[in-house]
Amino acid sequence: MTKNKVEAILEEMTREEKVDQLMQLATLFYEGSRQKGKITGPMEEMGIELNTVHNSGSVLGGAGAEEVKSIQKAHLEKNRLGIPLLMMADIIHGFKTIFPVPLAIGCSWDTDLAEMSAEIAAKEASVSGVHVTFAPMVDLVRDPRWGRVMESTGEDSFLNASFAKAFVRGFQGENLETDMDRVAACVKHFAAYGAPAGGRDYNTVDMSERELRESFLPAYKAALDEGCEMVMTAFNTVDSIPASANKKLMRHLLRDEWGFDGVIISDWGAVKETIAHGVAADEAEAAQKAIEAGVDIEMMTTCYVKHLKRLVEEGKVDEHLLDDSVLRILKLKEKLGLFENPYRGADEEKEKELILCESHRQSARELAVKSCVLLKNESVLPLHKEQKVALIGPFAESGDLLGPWSWQGSKEDAVKLSDGFKTKTKGENLFISRGCDIVTALEGEFEEAVETARKADVIVLALGEHSKMSGEAKCRADIRLPEVQLELIKKLKELGKPVSVILFNGRPLDLHGVIDEADAVLEAWYPGTEGGHAIADLVYGDKNPSGKLSMSFPYSVGQVPVYYNAYNTGRPKLEPVTEYVSKYLDIPNEPLLPFGFGLSYTTFSYNEPQISADAFNSQETLSASVTVTNTGDVPGEEVVQFYVRDVTGEVVRPLKELKGFKKMYLEPGQSEKVSFTVSEEMLRYHHSDLTFKSDPGEFVAFIGPDSNTGEPLNFSLTSSFQRV
Predict the structure, then answer these.
(1) Is the bond preceding residue 561 a cis peptide, omega within 30 degrees?
(2) DSSP structural state of residue 254
(3) Can you list the positions of beta strands (E) in 394-437?
(4) Do the Cβ atoms of 560 and 143 come closer than 8 Å?
(5) CA-CA distance, 676 to 625, in Å (whole number)?
(6) What does the CA dihedral 525, 527, 528, 529 come to, rounded to 10 degrees?
(7) Buried b vs exposed e over 527-558: b needs ≥16 C-beta within 10 Å?
(8) Burial 10-21 (b: 16+ CB within 10 A, else e)
(9) Most exposed of 45, 285, 286, 365 (fewest Cβ within 10 Å)?
(10) How many C-beta atoms surround the C-beta of residue 64 within 10 A?
């Protein structure tokens, strides 16, 4: 279908049909839906008329080939111009085959596997009738109290941008119109949703524009540069204006400056929420501000359908704004090939073949292995298969391994930890006890756990947060494990046997009472459908941990937000510690575990760090290198990380910034030289006037296994290049 035909459809549409095209409704409003029935509660209060449903442009939460085709067929019979619906859903870290949560995927530092996970999710989603996924979420996160940190890949803009591009490639492929196995991606939440005050969801975000551009915007831009088709607005304010009513953010920056011409969709109810924010007096003003800001689709509120037509007729809203929004939506439908094939990839038979197929499960297992991070190991792991093992804890036999935003995933399909362990050791060598629930213990459970542990040589504790303790609106001020689990650790530690802890959680935790009591700690996050197998692979040494933290673990919640690339102060804490410097009296300044940290069953040495020259200009590049050697007894994978510090800037600069990373596999005794290119472009930043340029001066490079380690390599830039 040509662009001219899309424009011809627009010309035939009535004003009411145009407005309704901007409406997104849940599946239960539509004929053909399994959920179709009497609409009650808040959805009944929306007052949606049948004609609006027939004219609407997109569906929220439709999935399943049979249902989607049924909805689309009924819709096309009612829609006057035969405009197909867009089916959108939250396919965040897998459709039916669930991969680790995105924060865990970030800890893999493996963008190829991340891309593969999105490609598999797209295959399963598209064959089930989904056209658009509300992913990737690329919000930069620094506060583990916020429940949605699990949906991001971490605290660093460079790493987040790398994963953003990988996810978009995986979801969309190279040609959405011809590749029925792909879905359109929607990057979210624009912008800075990951920085709510107090770590409380939906709360105010307040930062300078320079900080916004420097730290929070790069990952969104990376996703759009990769061709991401859609952007979702954030719930929060940006410069005291809610994102969904923020013309400077959406029209001036996103559209005019960045040149984005795709669809902008609000988050659930965000347009109407501008009233609660206090920038719109009523729904009519909310509609006017949102359409003027550039919001094309209003999700699950009715400000547009109830007021936009009148606002246009009264001359308060330029009709070209309405036409532009409709045209963007029609173009996306055209790009997906929906006018020729409204059922697109939906296929009941292929659905049965693809969903949860063995190859998808194996890929989920591989990524889960790479996403786990070994935080401590006092020569306890890996276990020997002949050892007698007590597997104890609320996650020992739990299927709650999928984590939040695993919408179509099923706990029944998840491989439990106990089932994974049973594939590695004989039944008479494995003893299982729950010990306690997530937050409570039944009478006698501690005693039963102790008796179970007495039979074993080693104790493995499976502890963590229930999946409903992470995700949207799941914020926690106390980010320790629940007290009952800490008590269980103490009880079992008294037996004097080696204790390993496996953690299942969606955020960095305050690990006091865990890391100081246990002999080994493996951070498994929510590992997904194949979690039990993947963790057993690691615990029994069939695989070697290689994950590195993509978000710092605080020493205490009192430090939060704590992150590696902070600024120095005029009175930095230096050794020896003196009075009147920037420090806490009762805890360290530094996190318990830094960004980039992760152990292995082998060891690696970093020798002979070198830089090719001590100075260069804007037309040249330098090479920074180091030789990495596997100094242990088993093969292993190491994530070599490259950081740079700008010693003196026009504005203060971070103590370190990640500028590159490489994963390398080394056999015992094997050495390999790793090199990183230093360019002038790499050294640019936003100045006080928001120009993006580098400054001549002194720099320091570091190559190491984490953000705290690495010998300094000094160099200078003698001339710079400016881009406004």
Answers:
(1) yes
(2) I
(3) 430-433
(4) yes
(5) 6
(6) -140
(7) bbbbbbbbbbbbbbbebbbbbbbbbbbbbbbe
(8) beebeeebbbbb
(9) 45
(10) 19
Tokens of 381: 């792991």
Catalytic site residue from 201, 267, 510, 706: 267
Asked if residues 547 and 108 have their Cβ atoms less than 8 Å apart, the reply is yes
Going by pLDDT thresholds of 50, 70 and 90, the confidence category of residue 37 is: low
DSSP letter for each residue of 179-238: -TT--EEEEEEETTTT--GGG-TT------HHHIIIIISHHHHHHHHTT--EEEE-SSEE
Q: Under a CB-based contact definition with an 8 Å cutoff, are residues 672 and 585 in contact? A: no
User: Measured at the alpha carbon of residue 408, what is the angle toward residues 406 and 410, in degrees to the nearest 5?
Assistant: 80
pLDDT tens digits, one per residue of 411-454: 999 999 999 999 999 999 999 999 999 999 999 999 999 999 99
CA distance 151 to 106: 10
d(CA 358, CA 380): 32
Structure tokens, 322 = 């309405």
Q: What pLDDT is attached to residue 724? A: 44
The answer to whether 160 and 138 are in contact (CB under 8 A) is yes
| Band of pLDDT at residue 47, cut at 50, 70 and 90 | confident
DSSP per residue, 345-356: T--HHHHHHHTT
Look at the chain and count its residues. Answer: 724
Q: What span, in angstroms and rounded, lies between the C-alpha atoms of 696 and 650?
A: 11
Do 325 and 22 form a contact (C-beta atoms < 8 A)?
Answer: yes
Concerning whether 267 is annotated as a catalytic residue, the answer is yes
Q: What angle do CA 387, 393, 397 make, to 5 degrees?
A: 85
Q: Closest by alpha carbon to 591, among 545, 547, 558, 640?
A: 558
**Partners of 657 in the beta sheet?**
644
Q: Which of 608, 617, 623, 614 is nearest to 677 (CA)?
A: 623
For residue 34, what pLDDT band results from cuts at 50, 70 and 90? confident
Could you tell me the CA-to-CA distances from 558 to 147, 179, 275, 380, 589 in Å, in that order?
Answer: 17, 49, 34, 31, 10
Q: Which two tokens stand for residue 101?
A: 């949560």
- Residue 715 in contact with residue 682, Cβ under 8 Å? no
Cα–Cα dist 32/73, whole Å: 8
Report d(CA 20, CA 25) in Å as an integer: 10
227 burial level (CB within 10 Å; 0-12, 13-18, 19+): middle
Q: Is the pLDDT of residue 539 over 90?
A: yes
Structure tokens belonging to residue 373: 């991070």
595 φ/ψ angles, rounded to the nearest 5 degrees = -50, 135
Cis omega (within 30 of 0) for bond into 84: no
How is the beta sheet containing 685-686 ordered, strand by strand?
685-686, 692-693, 722-723
And the tokens for 423? 């594939």
Task: State the Cα angle at 89 between 530 and 360, rounded to 5°.
Answer: 25
The three-class DSSP label of residue 253 is helix
- Pairwise CA distance, residues 111 & 168, whole Å: 11
pTM: 0.97
